Task: inverse folding
């Protein structure tokens, strides 16, 4: 999947609409690891060093072979700010599946909005009053009832309108 700032901005705006984000927030969406003009900078032009380590279930450390040491992941970075009070940054890597990217973005934006809204549930689960949780189900990023996973709604309705289930 090729992430673009235009696509990710549209996702973020739709998610913020569903979350009833308070007015006055600032949304920035930029391509990460770029050297202007939206093109990726060569790894040697990036001054930072990135290393990643995974821990396996047996407690042994494993090197993340999917990433080249010394290079930052490419993708898109979303920043949501509520004045000087709080902000959140979400990095969506190029290697992520679209549904994983949407669910991660929804999760992080929901956390930020819930914090600013003093815990008011958004999006609210119909009939239950708690917030829905973002998950990937059957390859689709969905808002899911934490009490009844059969109740789910596509986060981006145009991507899978058939995922709406009112059971």
Result:
């Amino acid at each position: 999947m090729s992430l673009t700032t235009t696509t990710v901005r549209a996702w973020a705006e739709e998610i913020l609409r569903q979350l009833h984000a308070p007015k006055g927030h600032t949304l920035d969406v930029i391509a990460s690891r770029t050297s202007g003009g939206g093109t990726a900078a060569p790894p040697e032009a990036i001054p930072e060093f990135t290393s990643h380590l995974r821990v396996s279930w047996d407690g042994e450390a494993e090197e993340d072979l999917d990433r080249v040491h010394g290079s930052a992941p490419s993708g898109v970075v979303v920043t949501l700010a509520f004045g000087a009070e709080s902000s959140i940054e979400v990095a969506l890597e190029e290697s992520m599946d679209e549904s994983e990217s949407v669910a991660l973005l929804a999760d992080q934006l929901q956390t930020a909005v819930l914090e600013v809204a003093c815990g008011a549930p958004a999006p609210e689960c119909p009939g239950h009053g708690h917030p829905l949780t973002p998950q990937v189900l059957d390859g689709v990023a969905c808002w899911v009832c934490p009490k009844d996973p059969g109740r789910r709604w596509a986060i981006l309705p145009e991507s899978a309108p058939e995922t709406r289930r009112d059971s």
In short: Confidence is low (pLDDT under 50) at residues 34-43, 45-53, 61-70, 160-167. Residues 32 and 76 are 5 Å apart (CA to CA).
